[in-house]
Design brief:
Largest sheet: 5 strands, antiparallel
Number of strands: 14
Radius of gyration: 25 Å
Shape: globular
Order of helices and strands: HHEEEHEEHEHHEEEHEEHEEEHHH
Structural class: alpha+beta
Helix content: 25-40%
């Protein structure tokens, strides 16, 4: 390991990924031959060298947002009970690395004392992934992280393995139709406005060219950003520019709002849609995008009871009807969307 942190700032990219690995991991790169599961939160990795390394998976906060104080506590756990290493996964979970099963159990206990769960491997809920939503995003419609927190708490028995599922389950919560967290998960929840926008005819002028003559040479940005051509610009009798929103074409994505503050949405119609059957793996029917199951349900924080009820019902149907090892995508393909609905 590098002794002087300043050396990291002087590195030349790309850095070989093995350079900062703990010795226990570095000497076994490319030499792993087998693995075993110990419960639903710990994997034992077996090397041809005879080394046995254990990875403990911990469910994270929504969008993996941690305070620096919490990160220091994680680092202390990794140093005290592990090999001085941890990683944050693409799914937002945290993985600690130990060199014995006893140490792995110590890590499970230590993170449990901090209020976190371990699990998420095998036939369990692997993750509830979230975008940043209002924390950093300009297109957020709903607050995905708080919805993720509620879902994680409600679905905890599926993550820890207290209630076993037919196969792995991944859930993504996106704050807007852009779906930054991905549309290839088993269940996808996506915030959307639920209706086309409106605008103030006078205020909207600040987002449009001053003279309609320019329409022959350039398309206003407000029109360009619409992915379905639901916004049309036209010349008014006074040679100013007007717009028309074709409500039947609008998908409520909110892109127009990104470029003009005077696009207005009806907050009472904001909700989420729920999609099912997406995944990126090549088993079964192969990679698929999630398909629409519920076009709109309301969002009512802090409990989001409607969202929790719909997601819980989908899982119950899949859990009681799917065969062993049958991912949501395979199940949907077998029974059909009409039967699932």
């Amino acid at each position: 390991m590098v002794s002087d942190p300043a050396d990291r700032l002087r590195k030349t990219l790309p850095v070989p990924y093995t350079e900062y690995l703990p010795d226990e991991i570095k000497r076994n790169v490319g030499r792993w031959v087998d693995r075993k599961f110990h419960g639903f939160g710990t994997i034992e990795h077996i090397s041809e060298t005879g080394d046995h390394i254990f990875t403990v998976k911990m469910g994270a906060t929504p969008n993996a947002r941690f305070s620096t104080e919490t990160l220091r506590k994680f680092a202390d756990i990794a140093d005290k009970h592990g090999v001085g290493a941890l990683r944050f996964t693409r799914s937002g979970n945290v993985e600690f690395i130990a060199n014995s099963l006893d140490k792995a159990h110590e890590i499970e206990g230590a993170v449990g004392e901090l209020g976190y769960y371990t699990g998420g491997w095998g036939r369990t809920l692997w993750c509830v992934n979230s975008c940043t939503a209002y924390l950093t995003c300009t297109t957020a419609v709903t607050d995905a992280p708080t919805m993720t927190k509620v879902l994680y708490d409600e679905l905890k028995p599926y993550f820890t393995g207290e209630v076993e599922l037919p196969a792995k389950l991944r859930i993504n919560v996106a704050g807007c139709p852009s779906g930054c967290g991905g549309l290839v998960e088993d269940i996808v929840i996506s915030g959307h406005y639920g209706d086309a926008p409106t605008y103030d005819p006078e205020k909207i002028k600040s987002c449009l060219p001053a003279r309609a003559d320019t329409l022959d040479k350039a398309t206003p940005e407000l029109v360009m950003v619409c992915p379905t051509s639901a916004i049309k610009a036209y010349k008014k009798p006074d040679n100013t520019v007007g717009i028309e929103i074709i409500r039947g074409k609008c998908i409520g994505c909110g892109r127009c709002r990104d470029v003009c503050d005077f696009i207005t949405w009806d907050s009472s119609k904001i909700g989420v849609c729920v999609m099912v059957g997406g995944r990126s793996s090549n088993t079964g029917i192969g990679p698929t995008l999630a398909r629409m199951l519920v076009p709109w349900i309301p969002v009512n924080p802090p409990g989001y009871r409607e969202v929790v009820a719909v997601v819980g019902k989908i899982i119950d149907i899949w859990r009681t009807s799917a065969g062993g090892g049958e991912r949501m995508a395979d199940y949907v393909e077998r029974v059909g969307m009409d039967e699932l609905l």
